[in-house]
Q: What sequence folds into this?
């Protein structure tokens, strides 16, 4: 298969005998499935948008995010090379390693203090980073937006961007919608990522010669990690409570 062939039948807007409209996430899932199957050397983002009758901007947004996650890379102007969705978990795990090391010298608010208009890739990393940092399986879009909001800009604009990011992450099965409306569940190997990140954190403590309880332990202590997550979750719910009071 080459990049000139459509990944989904052009003009296909319904499915099944009842003519139920296909959701945009279903279209992107089909595109990803084809890319995973055929591993195209290069493909045109514009061609995919046109052949699948999807808004150009959304297709560019999607593949910009995929590029940030290492799922694909730029081959030439307007063309990308597909690497594979399994690369996303590796990229996220490496990011979370850095986040845990950064958290050694930063509090909860500063750790998730994003610029006023973060890129979709930056949002994606920090969304999953928040799940892992709190060791929580499910979060709502509202909760995530309140953590990231700078208190000055329009939070509704942030929520729209977060919804887009969560939808894209759902396409590659890193996030799943919960049965509770507006809530999302993390769908990665959380235990492995957390264990790896805390080992990186311990290595960073040794290199920096910081004196702490962690530095005195021969391995990452489960009780210590448990207490750390309890404290982080308390900070998180304090942010939620303050937002409720100021609303």
A:
């Amino acid at each position: 298969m080459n990049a000139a062939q459509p990944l989904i039948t052009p003009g296909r807007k319904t499915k099944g005998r009842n003519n139920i409209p296909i959701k945009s996430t279903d279209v992107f899932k089909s595109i990803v499935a084809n890319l995973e199957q055929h591993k195209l050397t290069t493909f045109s983002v514009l061609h995919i948008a046109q052949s699948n009758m999807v808004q150009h901007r959304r297709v560019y947004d999607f593949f910009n995010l995929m590029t940030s996650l290492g799922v694909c890379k730029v081959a030439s102007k307007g063309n990308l090379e597909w690497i594979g969705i399994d690369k996303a978990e590796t990229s996220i795990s490496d990011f979370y390693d850095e986040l845990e090391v950064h958290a050694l010298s930063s509090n909860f608010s500063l750790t998730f203090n994003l610029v006023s208009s973060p890129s979709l890739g930056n949002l994606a990393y920090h969304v999953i980073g928040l799940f892992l940092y709190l060791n929580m399986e499910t979060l709502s879009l509202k909760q995530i937006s309140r953590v990231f909001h700078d208190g000055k800009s329009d939070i509704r604009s942030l929520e729209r961007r977060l919804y887009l990011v969560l939808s894209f992450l759902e396409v590659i099965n890193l996030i799943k919608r919960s049965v509770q409306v507006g809530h999302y569940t993390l769908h990665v190997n959380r235990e492995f990522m957390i264990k790896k990140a805390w080992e990186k954190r311990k290595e960073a403590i040794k290199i920096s010669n910081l004196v702490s309880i962690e530095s005195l332990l021969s391995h990452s202590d489960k009780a210590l990690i448990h207490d750390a997550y309890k404290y982080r979750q308390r900070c998180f719910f304090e942010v939620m409570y303050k937002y409720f009071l100021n609303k």
